[in-house]
Amino acid sequence: NAGVTQTPKFRVLKTGQSMTLLCAQDMNHEYMYWYRQDPGMGLRLIHYSVGEGTTAKGEVPDGYNVSRLKKQNFLLGLESAAPSQTSVYFCASSYHGVGGYEQYFGPGTRLTVT
Amino acid sequence: AQKVTQAQTEISVVEKEDVTLDCVYETRDTTYYLFWYKQPPSGELVFLIRRNSFDEQNEISGRYSWNFQKSTSSFNFTITASQVVDSAVYFCALSEGYTNAGKSTFGDGTTLTVKP
After folding, report:
1. Hey, how many other C-beta atoms are within 10 angstroms of the C-beta on B55?
2. What percent of chain B has pLDDT over 90?
3. Which of B35, B91, B102 minimises the CB distance to A96?
4. Integer-rounded Cα radius of gyration of chain A
5. Is B102–A41 a contact, with Cβ atoms under 8 angstroms apart?
6. Which of B 1-40 lie inside 8 A of A, CB atoms?
7. What is the pLDDT of residues B65-74, one digit of tens each?
8. pLDDT score at B98
9. Rounded Cα gap, residues B75 and B37, in angstroms
């Protein structure tokens, strides 16, 4: 039982390049999330999904796209990376129901855009 | 709109001291959920506790205890006899309602440093 995994763990991009971050969970959770964490700013929600095939915008969605083609996977895409997207990205998932709602996080992806 | 305030940005204590991390929340919903998460220096975020708005009972788990007071909209976290391993960033979070219960708003976090 791996919980939530993220690929890759580190990445350096040049301005304008694109990339996709992969998140996978093996807990059969309905909800999945992508956050970014910047120094002194806590966690900010980028996009989230309440089930397979559905996605929604969070607090800071600009410059990112997501897809949830399979229940266990949630992909975050950067089409044209900018230095402002340098951050640590966390994926999370949660069970939606009695006894649930807390989020389980992946180990994070440290992205640097030069 | 929901909001979580962790007014203490950084706290430093000496090992074996007790320490309380404050969390104040704002919500218009009568049904909501509160959480605490820990982020140690390794970087991973770990869930510690969940409380729903209908359950004001305080909780104790080993050296950790949580005090939930609806009257003051607070959900404070106390570590008794702190240890160096408690050094981490602690986040308080809030989710509203049932439909949005999985979607949380996080506070900015409190960095706790426990010195030997």
Report:
1. 12
2. 74
3. B102
4. 13
5. no
6. 9, 33, 35, 37
7. 999 999 999 9
8. 65
9. 13
